[in-house]
């Protein structure tokens, strides 16, 4: 039985990756954010995951508005960092685990999650930035990632989006699938997106720390309460892109009923986003 050894949840702002890749993380603007990431990196290193399941949303790199799966899993040998308009990040490719991905797909479909499956897939900032936060790996820093990966994508772009409760249940189903795998791999869950931010429209630049802090306080002890908040309320309280927090609920669902928060960090702002991070193990 493979074992979920912990979860990390973090915002996935593109410019966090650019700050790492261009070596400006000690600049006054970025230093408080990156200082807060150091304990999370230690947490992940100590967990030594063989496989990292990354819950994120594609932002138009692989799927555009004409064809958007609600949920999907990639099952490729490797994943390159794609070009989102400012050039691909110069980081090593991510090594996949097709057999493990297919196991998850088969198990989830049997468990009534009828998701899409991708045999070729490039990853965007939603994936690569959290991986760099968790493992290091700015341009040139590492020759290879110390973990195999499984990209799990959730639609947070094109309405209708999946409901918070459905996302939590997806996480629970991922947990059952991992536990049904015959190997003894150590699995890290990496939930991405959020916290409050809105990138367009009249409220572009909107951030809402009281909502974020409430979410950070609740996700460990009472995630069910967060699943009862309607999706529209997430958008009202955390901004349109703040709805990405539903992917933190996938990650939380993949953990056991009781978790211990090992570390959290919150910093306003990174670009247009209130940046949050949490590290959890089973209690
Ligand atoms: C920003 C945040 C995001 O979550 C994203 O996907 C793109 C940009 C930002 O704050 O710049
Ligand atoms: Fe995003």
Give the arrangement of secondary structure elements.
Layout: E1 3-10, H1 14-21, H2 31-47, E2 51-56, E3 71-74, E4 78-81, E5 94-95, H3 98-110, E6 116-118, E7 122-123, H4 125-135, E8 148-154, H5 164-179, E9 186-192, H6 209-219, H7 223-227, H8 231-238, H9 246-254, E10 259-270, E11 273-282
Parallel strand pairs: 1-9, 2-8, 2-9, 3-6, 4-7
Antiparallel strand pairs: 1-11, 3-8, 4-5, 10-11
Helix pairs in contact: 1-4, 3-5, 5-9
The chain binds 3,4-dihydroxybenzoic acid and fe (iii) ion.
Residues 12, 59, 126, 193, 241, 244 line the site of fe (iii) ion.
Which tags fit this structure?
single chain; 283 residues; alpha/beta; eight-stranded mixed beta sheet; three-stranded mixed beta sheet; 11 strands; globular; binds fe (iii) ion
Walk me through what this model shows.
Helices cover 35% and strands 23% of the residues. The model has no long low-confidence stretch (mean pLDDT 97). It has helices at residues 14-21, 31-47, 98-110, 125-135, 164-179, 209-219, 223-227, 231-238, 246-254, and strands at residues 3-10, 51-56, 71-74, 78-81, 94-95, 116-118, 122-123, 148-154, 186-192, 259-270, 273-282. An eight-stranded mixed β-sheet has the order 6-3-8-2-9-1-11-10, with helices on both faces. α3 (98-110) crosses α5. It contains nine helices and eleven strands. The protein has 283 residues and is an alpha/beta fold.
């Amino acid at each position: 039985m493979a074992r979920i050894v912990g979860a990390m949840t973090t915002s996935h702002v593109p410019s966090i990756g650019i700050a790492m890749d261009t070596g400006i993380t000690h600049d006054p603007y970025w230093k408080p954010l990156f200082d807060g990431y150091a304990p999370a990196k230690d947490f992940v290193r100590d967990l030594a995951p063989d496989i990292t399941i990354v819950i994120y949303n594609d932002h138009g790199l692989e799927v555009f508005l004409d064809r958007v799966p609600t949920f999907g899993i990639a099952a490729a040998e490797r994943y390159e960092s794609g070009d989102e308009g400012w050039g691909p990040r110069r980081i090593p490719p991510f090594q996949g685990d097709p057999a493990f991905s297919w196991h998850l797909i088969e198990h989830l479909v049997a468990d009534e999650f009828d998701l899409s499956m991708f045999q070729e897939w490039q990853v965007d900032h939603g994936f690569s930035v959290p991986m760099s936060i968790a493992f290091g790996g700015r341009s040139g820093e590492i020759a290879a990632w110390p973990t195999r990966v499984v990209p799990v994508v959730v639609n947070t772009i094109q309405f209708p989006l999946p409901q918070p409760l459905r996302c939590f249940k997806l996480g629970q189903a991922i947990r059952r699938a991992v536990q049904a795998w015959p190997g003894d791999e150590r699995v890290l869950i990496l939930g991405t997106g959020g916290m409050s931010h809105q990138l367009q429209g009249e409220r572009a630049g909107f951030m809402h720390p009281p909502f974020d802090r409430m979410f950070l306080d609740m996700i460990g002890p009472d995630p069910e309460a967060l699943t009862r908040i309607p999706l529209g309320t997430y958008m009202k309280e955390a901004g349109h892109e703040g709805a990405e927090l539903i992917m933190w609920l996938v990650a939380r669902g993949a953990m056991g009923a009781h978790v211990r928060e090992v570390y959290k960090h919150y910093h306003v702002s990174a670009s247009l986003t209130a940046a949050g991070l949490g590290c959890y193990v089973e209690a």
